[in-house]
Amino acid sequence: MRIVVVGGGTSGWLAAAALNHRCPFADITLVDKETSTPVSVGEATLLNFEKFLTEYCGLDSNEFLREMDTTLKGGILFPDWAYENSKIWHPFYFLDFPCEESAPMMDGWSLARDNGFEELMLLYKQSMSNLIDKNQLENAYALHIDCIKLIQYVREKIKNKITIIEKEVVGIASISTDRGIESLILKGGDIIEGDLFIDCTGHTSVLKDVRDTVDLSDRLYTNTAVSTHIDYENRTEELKPYTTSTAVDHGWVWNTPLQSRIGTGLVFNKDVTPIEEAKKYLCDFWNGRCNPDDLRVNNWTPYYDRNQWNKNVISVGLSAGFIEPLESTGIALIIEGVGTACNLLESGYWRDHDVEYFNCWMKQCFEICTDFVNMHYSTSTKDTPFWRYVRDNYKMSDAQKFYLDNMKTQDKSILGGKQCIFGGTNWIHWLVMLGFEFEPKQYMKDKKPREIFPQMLEWDKNMRKQQFGKSIIKHEDFIDMFLKKKDMNKVMNNLSDFRGSHLKHN
Hints:
Layout: E1 2-6, H1 9-22, E2 27-31, H2 48-56, H3 61-67, E3 71-73, E4 75-79, E5 87-91, E6 97-98, E7 102-103, H4 105-115, H5 124-128, E8 131-133, H6 137-140, E9 142-144, H7 147-158, E10 163-165, E11 169-176, E12 180-186, E13 191-193, E14 196-199, E15 213-215, E16 224-230, H8 235-238, E17 243-248, E18 251-257, E19 262-268, H9 275-285, E20 296-299, E21 303-305, E22 309-310, E23 313-315, E24 321-322, H10 329-345, H11 352-376, H12 385-393, H13 398-407, H14 424-433, H15 442-445, H16 449-467, E25 472-474, H17 475-483, H18 489-500
Helix pairs in contact: 1-7, 1-10, 2-10, 4-14, 10-11, 13-14
């Protein structure tokens, strides 16, 4: 099978790496224009990222952790989203509450919120103190990465395993009504043939002859970002093991700390806030640590394609759709698309129902992510033009209505299994933190808070005592000791031991 990946950037290189590793029978060619400049906005990942690089791309975690300016991400801190001076902590790792008997976390959420919810989040206090737990690396931390370095690293690892053509695709040379594209025209007149084409050409999706696009503007409220990189002033304090997404007058500002600098940007709606005003606001937010003239502007219309696999063309990344940077959905959706395609192609061919499955699954993923991001905007009371615009146009999703209805019942549980990227645990956590009422279920409904909460705190204190000094380390020290020691195999082997140690205790 001849597979042609058109377009570089994060989606193109990840697609090429995964297809090369999971489909060894395929002849992979990546075509990208010589002067391609990847968009470097999204630098925060979810838990599925590292697993994808190892299992789907066949890359070594100890190596790529060093090469991509990597820092750890124990969750996302959301200041000021629910109300002024509020802080929502969205972790990757949720614990049960070990009281007199097993009690699911959701049974204790309403209790914990009223008595100090952050006290019972395993990594919250550690993260706020810039500490990480080496014993939880596998299941509780995602990564912050430099997307440009990611591309450079992946290219170096696979350049001798695939064909790389640095030319622009200027058109379709031959197309079959039934089968799809047969060949492409490159700048200069060269022709490249293929059996399957991966479209990573961005919003224009140049390989698609027919697009069935779903406009998400009625449920999403931002369409522009101004972004930049800033230098550390106090690396020890600013090198945080989490992403920060702060709700501000014009939208929200992200803070993604990498080893060498901070990635930041303001996400807003250009129809409400002029771009020049947004640039000034971001620079003021950082007290002049960045220059308006150096900011990069990215525009988008939130959307996705229903037919992301059309005949013999699969759209991945921006060509498949885009929501907004909140909750790191961009890279996560790339991984879902590439990973699902690899699974369906491992036999060396595809069938009509494989195409139907892919499109159905990716539609579900985009819808779930859209509804989840939409929910974040549901309760803000900020009195500014942007937030008034949100309130005037807010449309609550059916998914949010479902979870809100079930939060008020005595049903056993509504968490269910993982639904693509965000499941019931994520939803309930956020809704409770936004201030929506929660009816205690099963265990909690018959218990008194004054009896239960001390038990929780005592267990939590003992757990922290057991861990502290054994696996707890400053985030900066962890990076300097482990991720920057390229020549110390012994150290990296120790890191591997740390990364898998949680398995020994489960």
